[in-house]
Design goal:
Strand 2, helix 1 and strand 3 form a beta-alpha-beta unit. Strands 1-2-3-4-6-9 form a six-stranded mixed sheet, with helices on both faces. A three-stranded mixed sheet has the order 5-7-8. The chain folds into two domains: 6-196, 2-enoyl-CoA Hydratase, Chain A, domain 1 (Alpha-Beta Complex), CATH 3.90.226; 200-248, Orthogonal Bundle (Lyase 2-enoyl-coa Hydratase, Chain  A, domain 2), CATH 1.10.12.10. The protein is an alpha/beta fold. It has helices spanning 30-45, 72-90, 107-114, 141-149, 151-160, 166-172, 184-196, 200-213, 218-232, 236-248; strands at 6-10, 15-20, 50-55, 96-100, 103-105, 117-121, 125-127, 163-165, 177-179. Helix 1 runs parallel beside helix 2 (72-90) and helix 4 (141-149) packs across helix 5 (151-160). It contains ten helices and nine strands.
């Protein structure tokens, strides 16, 4: 019987919470990554209003399970497990918020990067320390980190292996908000709940436009945006929102999520 290393709860507020639970360090073993991938695929198939990803206890995730490392063949297997799981998290068609408690190192940092926003506890630390083992990030760190904070700062973190505290991460744009550690999950969930009350189909299309547009040229991105802009007008929420604006002004609509 396989241990449950990732827990999924769906709240009445429309927020689904994904919690890593693999010992004190929440190491991202291949077993955990397989469970995370399955949960992410489930969330994509039956989307909630928003998603919060966090770690059980005092740590978000310390990184890969080092005991599984070996040669190049093992590296390809582990890297592929990371890519499948984190790509699945990134592909959830709703806002995904990382609630980063404690350390987010290596694969843990890469998981946070795969989320749309990062809310960090004031005692959180981020880093890509793989270089200290003589290796490089293999779960998307070289790509997602550089796109988020720029290539120079990504090289700083990756080539030194150093850790940054929450406030420095905030200044760099690696983190979007810093809150007291005791309030982290409550703050992240409350924020996610406000998003979950919005026009969910539009959320999914906006996320698709942003993420898809970044993968090509500006012209490609603008073409994608135009197509999705037209598509969103077929939703019930678009009709509700436009009618509400004309009748009562902005910010008064009650959306259905369809």
């Amino acid at each position: 019987m396989t241990d449950e290393l990732v827990h999924l709860t769906r709240g009445d507020d429309g927020v689904a919470t994904v919690t890593l639970d693999n010992g004190k360090a929440n190491t991202l073993s291949t077993a955990l990554l397989g469970q995370l991938e399955a949960i992410a695929l489930d969330l994509a198939a039956t989307p909630p209003g928003a998603v919060v990803v966090t770690g059980q206890g005092r740590m978000f995730a310390a990184g890969a399970e080092i005991s599984e490392f070996g040669g190049a063949d093992e590296a390809r297997t582990i890297g592929a497990s990371f890519h499948r799981a984190l790509d699945a998290v990134a592909a959830i068609p709703r806002l995904v918020v990382a609630a980063v408690n404690g350390f987010a190192l290596g694969g843990g940092c890469e998981l946070a990067l795969a989320c749309d926003l990062r809310i960090a506890a004031d005692n959180a630390r981020f880093g890509q320390p793989e270089i200290l083992l003589g290796i490089i990030p293999g779960g998307g760190g070289t790509q997602r980190l550089a796109r988020l904070i720029g290539p120079a700062r990504a090289k700083d973190l990756i080539l030194t292996g150093r850790q940054v505290r929450a406030e420095e991460a905030l200044a760099w744009g690696l983190v979007d908000r810093v809150v007291p550690a005791d309030d982290l999950v409550a703050e992240a969930t409350a924020f996610a709940a406000t998003i979950a009350a919005g026009p969910l189909a539009a959320h999914g299309l906006a996320k698709q436009a942003i993420d898809g547009g970044l993968q090509g040229t500006l012209a490609d991105g603008l073409a994608l945006e135009l197509q999705l802009f037209a598509d969103v007008f077929a939703t019930q929420d678009a009709r509700i929102g436009v009618q509400s604006f004309l009748a009562d002004g902005p910010g008064k609509a009650t959306f259905t999520g369809r």
